[in-house]
Amino acid sequence: MKILWVKSDLLHPTTKGGHIRTLEMLKRIATRHEVHYAAFDDDPAGTGKRLSSQYCAKVYTVAHRAPGRTSPAFVAQLARGVFSRFPVAIFRYRSAAMAGVLAEIIRKENFDSIVCDFVTPAINFPSMRPCVVFEHNVETVLWRRHAQNARNIAERLYLQLQASRMFRYEGEVCRTARHVIAVSREDATQLQEMFGIAPVSFIPTGVDVAYFTPPQASPRDGLVFVGSMDWLPNIDGMRWFCQDVLPLIRVRRPDCRLSIVGRTPSREILRLGERDPLIEITGTVPEVRPWLWKAAVSIVPLRIGGGTRMKIYEAMAARTPVVSTTIGAEGLEVNPSRDICIADDAPAFAERCLELLADRDLRNAQAEAAWTLVEQEFGWDKIAHRFEAILAKYPARA
Fold first, then answer.
1. How far is CA 178 from CA 30, 197, 347, 365, 386, in A?
2. Which of 53, 96, 251, 291 has the most crowded Cβ, counting Cβ within 10 A?
3. What pTM value is reported for the model?
């Protein structure tokens, strides 16, 4: 097949779950098919474009930089978001230049399949009718959960407005597209029910088990959270954990350490480390494996989210026991109490962490069951083949 894959950004540096999922599949798909990739490029060093040959035969880029979330320009976009018919998360990426590039290459290249990766790039397509939309999250659900967890009435009203606009936009994109692929059975069902579309395919999340498996047994201690620290669900989750859960753990383990590992920590997250010497904020790291390998427990205390959390399967492959909320593990094929611990309120979450921290045999048993699960079921080769089969079933030139 000749495939056009369109995303809002290039895949290097690979710092987000969406980057990892797309990159790992495309590296395998590109060995069997001709992949063309289109994205915005805001990297003056050119790293993303230079490394794009790892996953595509041809790359098309347009210079575009969405304002950072702490910049005055972003505040201005939030203000515009009161009046725009598009959600802020979408119109930030509207580009006449990208729209022109996509219209031209779709007209010239005669692609067998066209993939819109996330709903974000859809705003720049000439038409969604030939496209397969790859939904890493159900975006409307994500924004509704933001609104439910807002800290004040003004924030809640604004987020509810954004959620309603995302519902209209996401529904229109999904209903117009050739087909929709979700990342879990739960997401596929939600998309069908919310937007009246059927069928919706789904592929599970994968993991490179060999890459994350620790080279040798070594001492483990403390807690670790891995995730992009400029993403609102991660910020909210760590705020809740540090305020409500960690103090309960410290009653019985006053020396318990926590490492928060992820790029671009917000000012709020940095203050957590400034106030508590046992909380380490790493910022961007070359790779996350050493942090997983030395931690006794990986925590996923998310109260907001959509799609599936790749960080859970990565921790499982690293033989690091996981404690997660139900939302954190949502959509993943896991077996609570066997290969993962699930807890949704602060006392229960603290208790699961304390049990694992205190009992090495319990940690080892959970880690072994989890590693076996991902090794047998969720390698990227299997996932990529499933994705290809769906694309072949729903060609652009139907």
1. 22, 11, 46, 45, 17
2. 291
3. 0.80
